[in-house]
Amino acid sequence: MKEWTREERYKVLQSPEEIRELHERISKSVYRQTYHIQPVTGLSSDPNGFALHKGIWHLFYQWCPWGAVHGLKYWYHVTSEDLIHWTNAGVGLKPDRDYDNKGNHSGSAISNGEDLYIFYTGNHRDENWVRTPYTCGAVLGKDGMPEKLPEPLFGLRPDYSEHQRDPKVIWNEEKKKYFIFIGAQTQDLRGTVLIYESSELLKGWKFAGELKVPGYEKFGGMWECPYIVNLSGTDLLIFSPQYTKLPGRAESTNHNVYLLGHMDYDTLTFTPETDYQYLDFGFDFYAAQGAANVGDPDKAVLIGWIGLPDNHYPTEEEDWEGSMSLPRELRIRNGKLIQTPVAEIDSLLGEEVPADGNLPAACEIRVKPADAGQDFDLALFTKADGSGGLRMHYDAEKKLCTFDKSGMTKRFNPQVGEVLTMPLAEGLFSIRIFIDRSSVEYFFNEGEASFTSHSYPTEEEFHYTATPGAEIRIRKMNPSVEDTFVV
Ligand code: FRU
User: Can you list the domains of the chain with their CATH numbers?
Assistant: First the structure.
């Protein structure tokens, strides 16, 4: 594996020509995705600035152009009319100011109907590499390029650690105010959220206080990428706690969790009505962000990063890695969060192929076990003789799915664990799976739980096995992302 120097990781991109060949090379990789957003070159991580604006979905991703490494971060811009067919729009934000000299880190966007307002973290470092984060603004210009404000909106609060970033902006109709939630860490290294308020988007921001979440005063060491939305009268708070191990997550110290409850904007208290839950139970899912302005009080649309901060993936040797998850719809059903792939995904469904043990490289699989009260096994990406693969076993008595990826030829991140478990509230009655060239996403029981992971099957591993008696339908998925070089 290549060792990157700081100079290499933080090199400024002067011209697209510097990475054209890299793009040509990686676009030939057998692991390039066909209906998932992926980096034009190098590394993609968090989804950023996700919003519906004038009928167009805008999404940016954290992008390091040079290779599969976390270094100087840009925002790369993609757009879509339907959340499924995405077009590369080029660099959205680049580190061209002193206050963001070492990267444009994560953030969000909001549309007021006329303009799209972008809030991001300017990651400044001085010559001694001491970090100062700034919360910065930009407005999408008529040419589709964000124009940065001349100055940051506000700087760091010295009574918290340097970890203050990932502004999530929201409008609160009751208070007639905008709020920004910032992922943060206290000086005694506890994860938290800082809240700012203003009646205008581009000025007047003042610190309102620290978010209080009773019962979660000591829960992880930094809460990255906070997101809050009200769904059918219930508040949903999503964040990515770090520096902590959590039950059922093996050795991983990065997680994406959610709480359902009530947010009081007077006391800045989020009162959970449930225990925390994992947003996704898979090996690789993080920093998820919901889109602003979806126009439906009962629904949010969310995208996550298929990847984890400290993980390494087999395409690293090809100088790229990362992918966005499929956009999913979030709703509340019987007091629970339900996540399903957006309905528009059906437009990609192609030819049905026989469920004969072979797997197309990009497909949708619908599985109905014969009896929700019985154990059930499903192994994807096995060899022709049924050995190896990504194996799932459902224990009906415990209502627990166990996933084991150690049988795959290309193994990765064994140090954080190759076996994970996922409890279900109901017996296992349905699975909907989306396979692309280097990812797999499972949705269980019509949205009760999801499991997202990278997977890199070799040519011999396009087979599956399942407990007999199950109803299985496989349809090929048509491509919806073009691997174009737009920078
Ligand atoms: C989450 C994160 C964010 C940060 C960004 C930098 O993966 O660490 O907190 O803004 O990535 O790329």
Answer: 6-341 (2.115.10.20), 352-477 (2.60.120.560)
